[in-house]
Design goal:
Blueprint: E1 4-8, E2 24-27, E3 33-38, E4 45-50, E5 53-60, E6 64-65, E7 74-75, E8 82-95, E9 103-116, E10 124-132, E11 135-142, E12 150-155, E13 159-162, E14 167-170, E15 172-173, E16 185-188, E17 197-198, E18 202-209, E19 227-236, E20 244-249, E21 252-257, E22 268-271, E23 274-275, E24 278-284, H1 288-292, H2 295-298, E25 316-317, H3 337-350, E26 354-357, E27 359-360, E28 363-364, E29 366-367, E30 380-384, H4 390-399, E31 403-409, H5 410-415, H6 417-427, E32 431-435, H7 442-457, E33 461-464, E34 480-483, H8 500-507, H9 544-553, E35 560-561, H10 565-568, H11 574-579, E36 586-593, E37 597-604, E38 607-614, E39 619-624, E40 632-640, E41 651-658, E42 663-668, E43 673-681, H12 683-690
Parallel strand pairs: 25-35, 26-31, 31-32, 32-33, 33-34
Antiparallel strand pairs: 1-8, 2-3, 3-4, 4-5, 5-13, 6-7, 6-12, 8-9, 9-10, 10-11, 11-23, 11-24, 12-22, 13-21, 14-16, 14-18, 15-17, 18-19, 19-24, 20-21, 27-28, 29-30, 36-37, 37-38, 38-43, 39-42, 40-41, 40-43
GO molecular function, one term: carbohydrate binding
Pfam families: GH97_C, GH97_N, Glyco_hydro_97
Domain Glycosyl-hydrolase 97 catalytic: 320-485
């Protein structure tokens, strides 16, 4: 992948003063966002405005370091700092082999503000602030310098003093050691309990402002409403640093970093030069724009993999979810060639790119002396259990046009990482799910980066499970095809089913950060009154069309097809799953009201796919097709049937010819959805398509 960075320096403000005589103001390229930096006698502060409306009031930026010896912990900042700001404008243009838009070109403005101690050690750091048309980002940079070669960080204390009392949506967590699989809560900021960890992204809705234009996304009511301002807070380019959470402390949101596991309270240990991740604030009056945005990948480094010809995103089966179902056969089901062959043949018949070797009946496919899938002291991913010939399995799958990938517990993998990847490549594996990571301290962050780097060298893709949210790193390491970090349909196996409301909540929280791994494809939908926990052949809530739409709504480059073959073949809607792509060239959000419904449109080549999902109330959603290029398209619609309330697997498949000036009406059942394929026609095809 060729990454081209075009940076234009149009001016510099060279100030070497004890303090700035005036504030520093940074304005986004389109003029809608304004950021103000202000040094004080205690620590720097910043503020953010959107279209003249204040959204972040004066908020602190602070760093607390562990000092040598018995010196008490101290802030870097104080009186008399020497400040030297440099302004520039830039544009970043690049391509993404996996991403919501394959081609990106975004402009920004930037201040790099050098801050130096006037006495003692004369330590220096740099605050970099950027303004894009869809948000603001800032980070600290620690340049190499003679009087400071390392640091130990106790707290970062980035503040977010939001104006008014915005409606907040977040996942509240009990601690730092977590799979990041929590439900989301919506409540006013004033009602948030103090010092409780909030996972990121956090989504915020500020009250309506009559001076702003409407949401720009059609609804069933008026298209022009008193526009709210929407925000989301997350981080980008999380490398060699601790993961960030938010807490409400003394009335404002502030950062809280995951501590290193040794228990001494240190969050980050670093050798200079070093840099923090970007702290990111999406800002706008159209919430769907956050899902179209490339802001997080913009803030990451260019691709580190020189040859990407081997990287093949695609759908995968995952038989653990369905309970390892096989038909009545002449072979004994288990961790053997025949059981895996059954699923490989299913993938080959239906164009599913990958079969995942997991194990069977709670036993891993590799030698493991732990309990069930948990690792033991002698577990070894390079040694399949007796009776499983991994090379034979990979060769057979390759003869059918299917790739083999495996599930592994991260501790077993990391114990012999280089040896494992050497062996995986010799067998012919294409990738793996790395599971049960459950941490985001600096040590775990570095482990994940190392896994990605070494996997790329062996032409292996990675799916992180039980892991923290993405931070745009797919630009640098596109072999990370997806990651979890959210509650999903695996919970339908237990008495904790995912509801359509849960799916909607994920869209404007976790999905904002990027690829989101779900156990998709459950084809046994039931009304809520009929749900019961089934570890084998799980039931799902929401309609069949809701499930189909989730393949478009979610961003994932390794979407799962989790049910067993007989659950799919011959069933309504399976043709859509077979057809839907795994990578995209463009993403648009033609209709969205957070908490109510969302329609997401994604383009692959000339064709578009649209997924619409609904909450617990029947709705009719208008979907304008303005995102289409001029011309005619054959629209194949998969819509909830009239009896979907009691028979949620029923759907209606219809076809029509549409163009960019049309608006489709999606009639959605409670917990319903609609999936659409829009195939572009040339003139001859268009004429043929409308003949009786």
């Amino acid at each position: 992948m060729l990454a081209i960075r075009l940076l234009f320096c149009i001016g510099a403000l060279a100030l070497n003063l004890a303090c700035l005589a005036t504030d520093l103001t940074l304005t986004s390229p389109d003029g809608n966002i304004r950021v103000v930096f202000r040094p004080t006698d205690s620590f720097p502060c910043y503020s953010v405005w959107y279209k003249g409306v204040p959204v972040v009031d004066s908020s602190p930026l602070d760093l607390i370091f562990k000092e040598p010896g018995n010196t008490p912990p101290a802030s870097f900042f104080g009186r008399g700092l020497l400040i030297h700001p440099v302004y520039r404008e830039g544009a970043d243009s690049y391509t993404l082999p996996v991403g919501r838009n394959s081609t990106v070109s975004d402009r920004y403005t930037e201040y790099s503000i050098s801050i130096t101690e006037p006495r003692n050690r004369h330590r220096r750091l740099i605050l970099v602030i950027r303004a894009y048309n869809d948000g603001v980002a800032f980070r600290w940079v620690f340049p190499k310098q003679p009087n400071w070669n390392s640091y130990q960080l106790l707290a970062e204390n980035s503040g977010f003093r939001l104006t008014g009392d915005p409606l907040l949506q977040a996942s509240f967590l009990p601690g730092y050691t977590t799979s990041h699989e929590g439900r989301y809560t919506r409540l006013p900021l004033s009602k948030v309990k103090g010092d409780t960890l909030m996972d990121m992204p956090v989504f915020l809705e500020l009250p309506g402002h009559s001076e702003l234009p409407g949401r720009g996304e059609p609804t069933t009511g008026s298209n022009q409403q008193a526009a709210a301002i929407y925000m989301a807070i997350t981080e980008a380019n999380l490398t060699d640093y601790a993961g960030m959470y938010l807490i409400k402390h003394n009335g404002i949101l502030k950062s809280d970093l995951s501590p290193l596991p040794d228990g001494d309270g240190i969050r980050v240990k670093a050798i200079l030069p070093h840099r923090t991740p970007w702290r990111v604030l999406f800002v706008g009056s159209r919430p769907g724009a956050f899902l179209e945005s490339n802001l997080l990948t913009d803030l990451n480094d260019p691709c580190a993999i020189k040859d990407l010809s081997w990287l093949k995103p695609g759908k995968t089966d995952f038989h653990w979810w369905n309970g390892d179902i096989v038909p009545d056969t002449t072979f004994s089901p288990g961790i053997n060639f025949e059981t895996n062959q059954y699923y490989i043949d299913f993938c080959a018949r239906n164009g599913i790119a990958y079969h995942t070797v997991i194990g069977y009946g709670g036993i891993a496919w590799y030698t493991n002396d732990g309990v069930s899938y948990s690792p033991g002291p002698h577990s070894d991913v390079t040694r399949p259990i007796p009776g499983l010939d991994m090379k034979k399995l990979c060769d057979y799958a390759a003869s059918k046009g299917v790739g083999i990938r495996v599930w592994v517990h991260w501790q077993v993998l990391y114990r012999h990482l280089d040896k494992a990847f050497d062996q995986f490549e010799k067998w012919g594996l294409k990738g793996m799910m790395v599971d049960f990571m459950d941490r985001d301290d600096q040590q775990m962050v570095n482990i994940q980066t190392e896994i990605l780097r070494k996997a790329a060298a062996h032409h292996l893709h990675i799916q992180f499970h039980g892991a923290y949210k993405p931070t745009g790193l797919i630009r640098t390491w596109p072999n990370e095809l997806t990651r979890e970090g959210t509650l999903n349909y695996e919970n339908d196996k237990w008495d904790n089913p995912i509801t359509p409301d849960d799916d909607l909540n994920v869209v404007f929280t976790r999905l904002l950060a990027g690829a989101t791994d779900y156990h998709l494809g459950g084809f046994r939908a039931v009304p809520p009154s009929e749900y019961k926990a089934q570890y084998t052949r799980p039931l799902v809530l929401g309609t069949r069309c809701h499930m189909l739409a989730m393949y478009v709504v979610l961003e994932s480059y390794l979407p799962m097809v989790c049910d067993y073959p007989a659950a799919y073949e011959g069933q309504d809607g399976f043709d859509f799953i077979k057809a839907v792509p795994s990578t995209w060239d463009e993403t648009r959000v033609p209709a969205a009201i957070p908490g109510n419904w969302v329609a997401i449109a994604r383009r692959k080549g000339d064709d578009w796919y649209v997924g619409t999902i609904n909450g617990p109330t029947t709705s009719t959603v208008s979907i304008p097709l303005r995102f289409l290029q001029p011309g005619r398209y054959e629209a194949t619609l998969y819509s909830d049937a009239p009896d979907a309330a009691t028979q949620p697997n029923h759907l209606i498949r219809s076809t029509r010819i549409v163009q960019s000036t049309d608006t489709l009406q999606a009639g959605l059942a409670a917990g319903g959805g609609q999936a659409i394929k829009l195939r572009r026609l040339d003139n001859a095809q268009a004429a043929s398509a409308v003949r009786p």
